[in-house]
């Protein structure tokens, strides 16, 4: 698995019109791929022998591999570049991966990096015709804000699954610090063996909540993923009742990400910067 991309040598591929065309093609492939998974691939996988756990594992590995191929396609076509620091720390049993959410495809990157990860995803993806096939077959968790969601996420961690969570619940507003909801901290205290933060930086900003896919920046985008040191949730669980512990852990995570996102010296911009 390539964890860094090199500058694309062909000057034409850095041109605005080329990147716009390649971005349109990427999104078309993503949508068609989602329909193909739902209508063809997953029904075929369901015919293979194995229990429910085995079926889930097949589905998640299929989604992960295809997501990574999608990222590689975007990189090879000149839409973006990326680097990942510390990927070997991801994918452990009972690990809760917590990340900020600056762009639409953050979840595609992380699921592509972790072959058998569970993920808390937006509830709307369960009804989207292009995404509901993959999220249902992989048995990802719908972020509907209910107690059932908290229980399901905690249970997944107790079972030894790796769980990816974006505590903001939606994409970060450009130029603003992330705002974390306490649900992620509550899940971590209920079931995580370890919390691993992943700081994501995107330069220049793209695919935010306020930007449609066709509003691409004037230069190629670079994604940077930095896997931080593990956090022991029991350190916070021992500091008081569950609501108090959850608040303290959430404050710690918010402070950590705010501090890390402000460290420009750690961030190496893409080759077009």
Automatic annotation (TrEMBL):
Q: Enumerate the UniProt keywords alphabetically.
A: Acyltransferase, Membrane, Transferase, Transmembrane, Transmembrane helix
Q: Name one GO molecular function term.
A: acyltransferase activity
What the entry lists under Pfam families is as follows: Acyltransferase
Pathway in which the depicted protein is active: Lipid metabolism
Which residue ranges traverse the bilayer? 20-45
The record's listing under InterPro entries reads: Plipid/glycerol_acylTrfase (IPR002123)
Phospholipid/glycerol acyltransferase domain: which residues?
A: 95-203
Q: What is this protein called?
A: 1-acyl-sn-glycerol-3-phosphate acyltransferase
């Amino acid at each position: 698995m390539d964890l860094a991309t090199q500058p694309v040598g062909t000057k034409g591929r850095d041109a605005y019109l080329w990147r716009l065309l390649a971005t349109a093609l990427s999104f078309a492939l993503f949508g068609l791929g989602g329909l193909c998974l739902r209508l063809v691939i997953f029904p075929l996988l369901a015919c293979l022998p194995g229990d429910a756990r085995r079926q889930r594992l097949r589905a998640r590995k299929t989604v992960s591999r295809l997501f990574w191929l999608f990222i590689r396609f975007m990189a090879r076509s000149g839409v973006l570049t990326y680097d990942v620091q510390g990927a070997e720390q991801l994918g452990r049993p009972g690990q809760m991966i917590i990340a900020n959410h600056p762009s639409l495809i953050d979840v595609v990157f992380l699921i592509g990096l972790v072959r058998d990860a569970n993920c808390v995803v937006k509830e709307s993806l369960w009804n989207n015709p292009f995404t509901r096939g993959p999220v249902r077959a992989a048995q990802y968790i719908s972020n509907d804000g209910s107690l059932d969601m908290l229980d399901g996420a905690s249970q997944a961690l107790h079972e030894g699954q790796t769980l990816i969570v974006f505590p903001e619940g939606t994409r970060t507003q450009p130029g603003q610090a992330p705002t974390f909801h306490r649900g992620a901290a509550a899940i971590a205290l209920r079931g995580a063996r370890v919390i691993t933060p992943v700081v994501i930086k995107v330069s220049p900003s793209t695919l935010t909540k306020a930007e449609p896919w066709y509003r691409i920046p004037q230069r190629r985008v670079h994604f940077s993923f930095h896997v931080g040191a593990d956090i022991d949730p029991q350190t916070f669980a021992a500091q008081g009742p569950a609501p108090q512990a959850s608040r303290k852990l959430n404050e710690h995570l918010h402070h950590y990400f705010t501090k890390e996102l402000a460290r420009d010296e750690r961030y190496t911009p893409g080759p077009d910067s």
